[in-house]
Design goal:
Helix content is 20%, strand content 35%. It is α+β, with helices and mostly antiparallel strands.
């Protein structure tokens, strides 16, 4: 994989450090994989074609690619709030959610992750580490998971929800 301009990569045995305009990411990669950084190109090689080595090769290559993309462009997850009275607001760095409970929910994001609220029913989670951005988005979604009957809850942008019919024949019953 080629390293874009503005990104600095350093390798110390199996400890990779990638620095770019969106921050610095560090990761200890599997020691079995042979990683090399030469002339702006990162290469990952496996010692053999055995199944565990093939799996680790793909994992290592993807982790390195995500690190490079994260510090150069960053990652974003978008969430939608669906439901009457469901809304989000930003107070300082904290996210305050009103999701139909008796109290508002206050969430403080970890370091390296920023949360924006462009519209009261939309949340945008951004950061350099893809794994942490996904975990923060999943945590926010867990406060009110989408339910299949009315479709209310916190959904990922573009998520399709399988709807259920609910009770049938309620109006036609007689004693």
């Amino acid at each position: 994989m080629t390293v874009p301009s503005g990104v600095e990569v350093s390798l110390d045995r199996n400890h990779l450090t990638v620095t770019g305009m969106h921050g610095t990411l560090e990761r200890v990669l599997p020691a079995v994989m042979q990683i090399a950084v030469e002339d702006g190109v990162i290469t990952v090689a496996r010692p053999s074609d055995a199944s565990p080595h093939r799996a680790l090769h793909g994992l290592t290559r993807t982790l390195v690619a995500n690190m490079v993309e994260g510090v150069s462009r960053g990652f974003t997850r978008e969430l939608d709030l669906v439901g009457v009275g469901f809304r989000a607001a930003k107070q300082g760095a904290d996210l305050v959610l009103t999701l139909g409970y008796s109290h508002p929910i206050r969430y403080t994001p970890p370091d390296g992750v920023t949360i924006d609220v462009p519209v009261p029913t939309q949340i945008r989670v951004t950061g350099a580490d893809k794994e942490v951005v996904g975990q923060v988005a999943a945590k926010i979604r867990s406060f009110r998971k989408p339910e299949p009957y009315k479709g209310k809850g916190v959904l990922y942008r573009g998520e399709r929800l399988r709807r259920k019919a609910g009770k049938s024949g309620k109006a036609g019953k007689t004693k």
